[in-house]
Amino acid sequence: MRSVSMARRIWDEFVANKFYLLFFLSLIAQLLTYGYSLITAEFFSSEFTFERLLTFIAILAGYYLILAVVNGLLQMYREMKSRVYQRSLRKRSLVTVLQMPSEAIIDLGQQYIKEIVTDANNQLAQIVSNYLSTVVNVIVGLVVLTIALSRQSVWIAVLALILIGITVLIQSMLMKKQIKLSKEYFQMGANYRAMVSDIQNNTLSIKKLDAEDYFADQIDEKSAEVDAKGAEKTSYEVKIQWIFDLFTYAILLLILGNIAWMLYQDPSYGALFWVVFYTGIFGQLKSQISAVTGSIQRMVDFQISMDRYDNLMAETQAEEGYILHHRWRNITVSDMSFTYQSSERHIFVEKFYIERGDHISLTGPSGAGKSTFLGLLRGEYQPDTGTITYDTRKRRRLVPYLEDAVYISQALNLFNDTLRNNLCLGRDYSDEELYEMLDRAGLKEWALTLPEKLDTMISENAANLSDGQKMRIKILRGMLGQREIMIMDEPSSNLDLASSEQIQRMIVEDLADKTVIITTHDPDLVRICNRHYVIDADGTITEWLPSYAGEFPI
Q1: Which helix H or strand E contains 519, and what residues bound it?
Q2: pLDDT tens-place string over residues 147-198
Q3: Contact 480, 437 (CB under 8 A)
Q4: What is the pTM assigned to this prediction?
Q5: Which of 43, 64, 116, 280 has most Cβ atoms within 10 angstroms of its Cβ?
Q6: What is the bridge-based pairing of β-strands 346-355 and 359-363?
């Protein structure tokens, strides 16, 4: 059933991406190639004259011209279609991976996810663009061989086809162990490459830890394991190839033996031509049959890759990874702790309660861990202990990280793109809607003075914008994202008074129905929040409750 499912998947991809022309160009190229062999057999198997030779040369010239054109078109179309298909696969995979829960991305590792996606995409592209063409090539070759053999001996033709069928059958029976070896090799190889990439991306940290030798030994040990498994896999594949060669050479010897028998019966029989003819056509067919049996191995690799890919993509369907939009009532962070690897400093929060519509401030000394706590909420870091519980109207759900949140960092960088694209990030908003949003942020008049209005390019460091303008654009971008929770890290830090007041107004008026969590040192931002938490120098977060009306924790 799995084979049927895989075949259906290949066919669905083949149809969805319109590989028909590739298929038919390959078919024409093979018909021309093998058709030449039949034409040659026809000319040389009967009386040969000067006029027939001229005709043969003319046909041969036309044949080579047509074949050259078809092969050129086939190569160009295959390359073009392959590039388009790979681009489509990458986009499809990226969109799906970006929908995965933060927990799954952290647990699996970004490099491991990249390894799985890249491997599956490469396998799928190879199979779809090449496998069906290879099968067609073999079918055409077998038909031509059967026709040619039938001219000499029907029973030899039948026997040759039976032996070819037995060859493919035996190889298929030997695939069980090969699948096991391939799975182990793929898994070990993927883990190894992901580990190497992670080490390469953290070389400075490794140097600071004085752990070069340790990680070098780790790479060497894993590499040796992968090499040993690869050698075992290759050895088994060679044994299967030997069986294939044994049968195919036996078929060729059978055919040549039949020619010898016919020469024995009729000394005038043109045996030399038929020896050359069958040796050539069978050599070509052998390479095609070998390609098909090799494709069985490719199918094995494809199945393994797609199984891993499907398991990865299934993470996007994990129910615990999503919040039911507009349904949750409150969120409770319980007993969450995190220890910095580079020091003994830690963060601990016994209870952090978020009710829908809350505007919450988190204050405390610089370096205590406010930004890190926001990273824990968003899933950027993995806590040592702790849970986040969502209480919905239907049921309680236990999940590790906030997924229904947009994060606005204190870093003021934007994208090297237009103002429109910086705001919309691919979402569809009219000019009127965008100008209305900019007006609410006090930026409409400024936007109208830009050379290309909304389509004015903004550099990544946005040197021509003030810090207040940059922050307000980032907040607008978050508002357009339609998420239920807005997490802001020091939104008014180092801003002028006018920009700071504008941001306060946006939070109070435009985000009144959103849940907002703000880390800040700004007393004015603290005052517009209805609930407050503080973090002390030791990293412990507790809720601050006022002793009298109007008291604030800063």
Answers
A1: strand 515-519
A2: 777 777 777 778 877 877 787 777 677 777 777 787 788 778 777 877 777 7
A3: yes
A4: 0.54
A5: 116
A6: unpaired
